[in-house]
Automatic annotation (TrEMBL):
Keyword check for Ligase: yes
Location of region: Disordered: 116-135
EC number: 6.5.1.8
PANTHER family tied to this protein: RNA-SPLICING LIGASE RTCB
Catalytic activity: a 3'-end 3'-phospho-ribonucleotide-RNA + a 5'-end dephospho-ribonucleoside-RNA + GTP = a ribonucleotidyl-ribonucleotide-RNA + GMP + diphosphate
Any GO MF annotation of the entry: RNA ligase (GTP) activity
Cofactor section: Mn(2+)
Enzyme type, top EC level: ligase
Protein name: 3'-phosphate/5'-hydroxy nucleic acid ligase
Alphabetical UniProt keywords: GTP-binding, Ligase, Manganese, Metal-binding, Nucleotide-binding, RNA repair
Keyword NAD: no
Length: 414
């Protein structure tokens, strides 16, 4: 493995594999992530090169913060199980002066309006997920009708998906790094921002096809540098079924964010009586997904695992952490990155390590000025567990330009 330097990115030359172009100057990259990138680059169907974003870190099968272009094959684990996970943000006509003196009132209203988290007592047990709807509201009913027929057709081919928590998860947040925030931009306008994906049904689809791909590899005696790089070949039934299911899951994820945004706006209107408009500027973008795109004169399948599309003029969202800035960005259409940018700051340590290293007092200090949970169960999301967002943004200055800088004042996590 040899690394060479260019003006804005480094290149890892992989013996027996595609080059790896890395927009990581000035940010740490763990050795395990470099090895994972090497493994992925050796897959024979990688097109041109792999593009690595500054938030890159170790993932399952493929690194998070990576763009993998392929010909005639797809790696389900590179897409992951939170299919279509992404961000949505909307600017409002409210300003900082319109926010209530007690931000806890606003946070409580949002928490009532959007199911979030998952009760420990339900993990691994049958019964309703506490982060799902008991009785879904009319907005969920209307949205589900737009998704139901296609899902029923998918279930005819994959019956095991039928009993997943889909309808009751539509319009819900989840847990981990998913969040809902009220933010202020650089001139004091209020923004609503949220982060979530395809929830339980996306997890079920991803898990099912990852296992199918592994089974196919065993059946055909395909040796891989990592079993999670198991792939589906174009022209096979499993490939066709996966493309259909993953496309639907991405629609579900986008709709999930739209329904949450509706409920978020309605919740804020209950607290702030002043009339206001939303979606003055709005962005809804995936950062865990796969789709056909044209690059370097060829139609290829582009998998973005923790990366955002950044075509020329396209708006995207790059969040920091629950104590750091976030950015609304405009893409520069950099072809070497396959028109991509980072999906966030990127973790510097595992959740287990963050809980071992930091205390509740550290969490309270790091989120000072933000109305949010300050308890032991969110220490794994402490800002210090993430890379410096300013360094991450500088490393990708050739990929995007900053349009707005946001700072959260309310953060809801599962």
């Amino acid at each position: 493995m040899k690394t060479t330097n260019t003006t804005s990115y480094d290149v890892m030359d992989i013996q027996g594999g595609a080059p790896v172009k890395m927009w990581t100057q000035g940010v740490p990259v763990e050795e395990a992530a470099r090895q994972q990138l090497t493994n992925t680059a050796k897959m024979p169907f990688v097109y041109k090169h792999i593009a690595v974003m500054p938030d890159v870190h170790l993932g399952k099968g493929s690194t998070i913060g990576t763009v993998v272009p392929t010909l005639d094959a797809v790696i389900p684990a590179a897409v992951g199980v939170d299919i279509g996970c992404g961000m949505m943000a909307a600017k409002t006509t409210l300003t900082a002066n319109d926010l209530p003196d007690s931000l806890s009132t606003l946070r409580s209203a949002i928490e009532r309006a959007i199911p979030h988290g998952m009760s420990p007592k339900t993990r691994g047990h049958r019964g309703r997920d506490e982060g799902s709807w008991q009785t879904p509201p009319s907005a969920v009913d209307a949205a589900w009708l737009q998704l139901k027929d296609e899902f029923d057709a998918i279930c005819l081919k994959t019956p095991s998906l039928k009993n997943t928590n889909n309808y009751r998860h539509l319009g819900t947040l989840g847990s981990g790094n998913h969040f809902v925030e009220v933010c202020l931009d650089e001139v004091g306008f209020v923004w609503f921002m949220l982060h979530s994906g395809s929830r339980g049904v996306g997890n079920a689809i991803g898990t099912h096809f990852i296992e199918l791909a592994k089974k196919d590899m065993r059946t055909h005696f395909v040796n891989l540098p990592d079993s999670d790089l198991a792939y589906l070949s174009e022209g096979t039934q499993h490939y066709d079924d996966y493309v259909e299911a993953v496309s639907w899951a991405q629609k579900f994820a986008r709709t999930n964010r739209e329904v949450m945004m509706q409920n978020l706006i309605a919740a804020v209107r209950l607290v702030i009586k002043k009339p206001f408009e939303t979606h003055v500027e709005a962005v809804n973008c995936h950062h865990n997904y796969v789709q056909k795109e044209r690059h370097f004169g060829k139609d290829v399948l582009v998998t973005r695992k923790g990366a955002v599309s950044a075509r020329t003029g396209e708006l995207g969202i790059i969040p920091g952490s629950m104590g750091a800035k976030s950015f609304i960005v405009r893409g520069k259409g950099n072809e070497d990155s396959f028109h991509s940018c980072s999906h966030g700051a990127g973790r510097t340590m595992s959740r287990t390590e963050a809980k071992r290293r930091f205390t509740l007092a550290d969490q309270v200090r790091a989120t000072e000025g933000v109305e949010c949970r300050k308890d032991a169960n969110v220490i794994d999301e402490i800002p210090m567990a993430y890379k410096d967002i300013d360094a991450v943004m500088h490393a990708q200055r050739d990929l995007v330009e900053v349009v707005h800088t946001l700072k959260q004042v309310v953060c809801v996590k599962g």
